[in-house]
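Thread: Modeling a multi-component assembly for a lab meeting

Hi all, long-time lurker, first post. My supervisor asked me to bring a structural picture of a complex we are working on to next week's group meeting, and I have zero experience with this. I have the sequence lines for every component (708 residues in total). Could someone generate the structure of the whole assembly? Inputs are pasted exactly as I received them:
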Amino acid sequence: MQSRSLELLVGFFVSLGIAAVFVLTFRVASLDSVGDSGSSYKITAKFENTGSLARGASVKLSGVRIGRVRDIGIDPETFQAVVTMEIDGSRNNIPGDSNLKILTSGLLGEQYIGLEPGGDPEPLKNGSEIAFTQSALVLENLIGQFLTSFTQKEPSAAKKSEEPAEPKADRKIDGPGTAPAK
Amino acid sequence: MSFLTPAAEGLRGLGRASLFLLTILATIPGALLRPRLIVQQIYSVGNLSLIIIIISGSFIGMVLALQGYRTLVNFGAASSLGVLVALSIVRELGPVVTGLLFAGRAGTALAAEIGLMKATDQLAGMEMMAVDPIKRVIAPRFIAGLIAMPLLVSIFSMMAIGVAGGHAIGVELLGVDDGSYWSQINQAMHGGDICDMLIKASVFGLAISWIAVYQGYHAAPTSEGVSRATTSTVVVSSLAILALDFVLTAFMFR
Amino acid sequence: MNTVISDTLVRVRSLRFAFGPRVIYDGIDIDIMRGKVTAILGPSGTGKTTLLRLIGGQWKPDAGSIEFDGINVHQQSRSELFELRKRMGLLFQSGALLTDLTVFENVAFPLREHTRFPESMIRDLVLMKLEAVGLRGAADLYPGQISGGMGRRVALARAIALEPDMIMYDEPFTGQDPISMGVLIRLIQGLNQSLGLTSVIVTHDVEDVLKIADYVYVVSGGKVLDHGSPDQIRNSKSALVRQFLNGEADGPVSFHYKSATTYEQDLMAGRA
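Re: Modeling a multi-component assembly
Sure thing. I ran the full set together rather than chain by chain. Output:
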């Protein structure tokens, strides 16, 4: 009988199905690590507010993803958020005095961490902590800021609300200053 | 008295179907000792459904990507296209559409085959040869359906999200960034979503296989009986899939 | 009523069976003797097939008992019943061959299900059985590729594969051309003599079965009308039996199916 080819075909079907399960769990669910796993190092940074930053969010340098957020915790003494990031091992020359900002991609997009390189010749290593950080923008605070400055003086309101818009320069979307106006 | 009859008949049918399921479950350990028969049935319900599943999965992914892009691009959120496709497919369309196709493709074939075996005395003949037709004929087909459905749903979802569906349209055609297509999906979804998808797939697989073998085994042994069995297999399992989908979604929603 | 026969294989006693309101058997006694060919004759629709299914334990009688080799068929557990069935073969009118298996695999089916014989032994046994029914050459064909008469012979080969004590033939001669009918008759006789099989033939085909039967029961209307050797049956005093044997259209068994109204009433009703 042609049982051999039958078994072969069924084997093909079953392995295709199992492969699909794996593809789905690894690509769709965030179980994979950054690019080539194995060579990566971890850095930490403290933020006043992480907004809706989630585990698995990207860490981007000039818009290119270089790592991921691995863990978000709380510093027991300062009550600041401690974010642990895993950076691709091939990016081993990032200056130690770089600063981090929590940014939003697009109006409805996800939050990610943007890294702006500094000038320190000493690069980041496993376990380094980045000192310069800027928190996520919280819409309610912005509206509050906007309203208080608006009632005081109009020109200063515009200036104040434009300030936090700067980090968004890489996007064509207008700064958050206009978002509350919507 | 007479207006009670349809309700009583319905109850009786449900009772018979439940007892039938118990009988099948009791024979499963014995049927597992004959993996060969199961492999054969996986071929006929799984491999033979593969083409329709792959093609439908690809098209549904492509349509979702086109429709989703038009809406999302208005909000400047085109990079979320992957999330839209993946969420719709993994949570709903994957299991439901695969289930409906599986009922139409494999369920009817099962019901018709078993019904014809009954109509041509093959099942009675087996019984007279001291071979239990439930163990020899029904259980392997039932098990094969249970195994094939989660695999088919995964293949469907993979095609719709990745290989040829949403990814092909979103990334290759509409120019959404490949990295953000996947990273957005990664952030919006987690392993639990895949688990939920597989749970839905298994429950649907159980329902379809159960309905199909029940309809076939209890078909009237005539050509009309067999045709009625195949029709009710599609109708009943489609309704069962949609109803079960609601119940399961409500549970998973928490 | 029945003559006492020693060495009875199947003993049916005051059997009653009904499909809903339709009574098929209303208290019949039948004895089937070991190693003999017993024919059960009766007009169509008298539930002759039902009798075979009752003996095989597929259906349960409403009253009465059926004993196979001293064991009450209907008081067995499912597994005991299956053990019992291995000792009887039933040849369905349709053949009931498994259409997705070849002729060879069909005959091998009971062997593979019930024995752990090595493949070479199964092969030998199957070829022997197929040779016995003259269809060794058709081993690789599928049931759809052979004629109905050949199918019935394959079914016969399958029924004897486990070497049962008894074979029940359900209408073996229906729809056969004279040649394959002759082949079947010779086969049944041959098996009976060479293997010492007990045979039960259920049929409405009078002449052919009287040639090979050792003992005949005539059943109609849920009762045994007459029984005895073929010669005794031929000279039966019962008008019904004579009508049946001679194939007269009208007699105690009416040509017309029972109707509540007369022919004239029906015709007039259409006009009103």
